[in-house]
Amino acid sequence: MGYKKAFKKAFPYTIPVLTGYLFIGIAFGVMYAEKGYSFWWAILMSLLVFAGSGQYLAVNFFVPGFSLIQVVLLTLMVNVRHIFYGISLLDKFNKMGKKRWYMIFGLTDETYSLLATTKTPEGVEEEKFLFAIALLDQFYWVFGSFLGGLAGTYIKFDSTGIDFAMTSLFVVLFIEQWMETKNRRPALVGIALSALGVCVFGADRFVFPTMICIIIVLLAGKKVFVKGGEEYAG
Length: 234
Description:
The structure is a single chain. This protein is mainly α. It folds into 2 domains: 2-165, no CATH class; 181-234, no CATH class. 75% of the residues lie in helices and 0% in strands. The radius of gyration is 19 Å and the shape is globular.
């Protein structure tokens, strides 16, 4: 009964993710099917991997020429930001018992955004509410992958540019969090270091070294970036 109420309360908060994941999940399914794989494999990957942008990247791993080392390094470059997510949610996850393992697995950018900013409604246990958010978000992605894989298999059309759907979602998430938060110092650090990274390392190689620099700077200056953030933004 507690879970039923938790899912009912969580659903309205996940509607923005539903609209986003449905379409980028469809885009992933289409891309996967175009490589010649059955849509069932797209569904299986979304169930067992569920890595968002990592899955978009993984589509290219199945073509000849990719080595295991390249796969590991590229995946690390794309998902290194999850270090931030995990650190900031340690306290919440530690209270969730065995469910914390699924929460760690299901931690995507969009889910993190909800877990970090949404207050648990009255009358609902926090751990069940957070679990419901994570599970609903994955369901949206899996369903989108199913639709996209099905469409890519049986409907022939020009899918040029469809992979830009994930980039668009990241931009929307950034703008949304920028507008909602008062402390914009961490975001400004990310913007500045990313711009510097592009200049130093080039557009094709800046992601990994830039993320490392961002981690070091934010961890080293945690008190500076957090304390007084509201006054800075105001």
